[in-house]
Task: structure prediction
Amino acid sequence: MSAADQYWYNTRTGEVETGHQSSWTHLLGPYATRAEAEQALTRAKSRNEDWEDDDAEWGGTK
Result:
């Protein structure tokens, strides 16, 4: 899959971009589909919560 065929979620604009158009500092991805890119923030939030739970279990605070 070429870079032009990938999708990115732009955290600054809240828009999905096809191909690399913006600064890397504002992008999440790449994603294979537009639908995956549209869910980028939801997926990131879920993963962060899972990691925080894992950290709490590992540290003995949960």
Summary: The two ends are 42 Å apart (CA to CA). The mean pLDDT is 88. The chain has two helices and three strands. Residues 16 and 38 are 6 Å apart (CA to CA).
